[in-house]
Amino acid sequence: MSAIPSTTERHRRPAPAAPPAPVRTAYALWLTAVAAGAFETVLAVGRMAADGTGSAGEIGTGLAVRLTVFTLAVLCARRMRGGARWARVALALGLGVLGTASMVVQPLGYLADGGSVVDALSRAGALDLLFGASRAVHVAAVPAAVALMFRPAANAYFRRTARYAAGPA
């Protein structure tokens, strides 16, 4: 064995550090949000099929859209965990802003039109309460994940991984 390192050994950069706790927790929260969204989808499709309120085409289209969003969310979350800054921004803007808005517009509209939480809960069946609990988990997980992705330790991690990806100076 030679005492002189090979050319590849001299130019090899050390692997970036493992993601810090805020990034790992944000990743877990993104997976939680996706799981909650998938559960809500199952409940909604089950209700539409049981009530006959949705055609097969409408249900199929809705499932295709949601499956695409869930898949992209998981892929972006994986890339974010690996240090991809674009994935962090995509999650924050796409799901943190637009996704959250899509989940809260209807309930806020109901309240703005004079509806009350007490009235809605008194009329809710078991399926409605299960859906609401899942939606609450979903809505809580997203802003928590976004906030964690921008904690100081996460910011430092994304800066380090960007320098690592850029290659030798």
How would you explain this protein's 3D organization?
The protein is mainly α and 169 residues long. The chain has helices at residues 7-11, 21-51, 56-81, 85-112, 117-123, 126-149, 152-166. Helix 2 (21-51) runs antiparallel to helix 6. The chain is elongated and about 55 Å long.
Mean pLDDT score: 87
Poorly predicted tracts of residues: none
The major pleated sheet works out as: none
Number of DSSP strands?
0
- The total count of helices amounts to 7
**Computed Rg:** 22 Å
Proportion of residues in helical segments: over 70%
Order of helical and strand elements: HHHHHHH
| Beta-strand content bin | under 5%
Structural class determined from secondary elements: mainly alpha
**Which word captures the global form?**
elongated
The separation of the N and C termini measures 29 Å
